[in-house]
Amino acid sequence: MILAILSDTHDDLGNTARALEIARARGVAHVLHCGDLARATTLRLFAGLKVDYVHGNMDHDLPAIARVLEALGNGSSAAPDFRAVLDGVRVGAVHGHRAEALDELVRYGNFDFVFCGHTHRRRNEMHGTTQVVNPGAVGGVRLESASFCLLDTAGRDLEFIELG
Length: 164
Hints:
Elements: E1 2-6, H1 13-25, E2 30-33, E3 50-54, H2 62-72, E4 77-79, E5 82-86, E6 89-93, H3 99-107, E7 113-115, E8 123-127, E9 130-134, E10 147-152, E11 157-162
């Protein structure tokens, strides 16, 4: 399975659409969004995909986000954090604005990958046996070029995709 990991889209419809176009072309059917969507209406771009969404600090209408995700179907969900085993790969995610929640996911080595957002900076570091990854920001004020990640669970291969 190829999983797309996006964060900090901040209602940037152009970059979000480009990221999803690339993801779909690569066979992605499942997206993990690490928060700061901002408005629920942006989720309409995700039609046809399963989306697991973690709450960001700029998501001011979480009930609307949950309603749109439910309408998307495909088992899409929204929660403060994400924890799952996907094709044998243990995956956790939080937005990153709650440092203690991020630390908890990383500290005990219960996950192969922990994804986060918030800082708008790409990150790819090993902490013990856990790979901690920030895919960068798709939208908003960016400190680096817009980016997201693809994770091929079969080989546990991670690829950063820059949007320019």
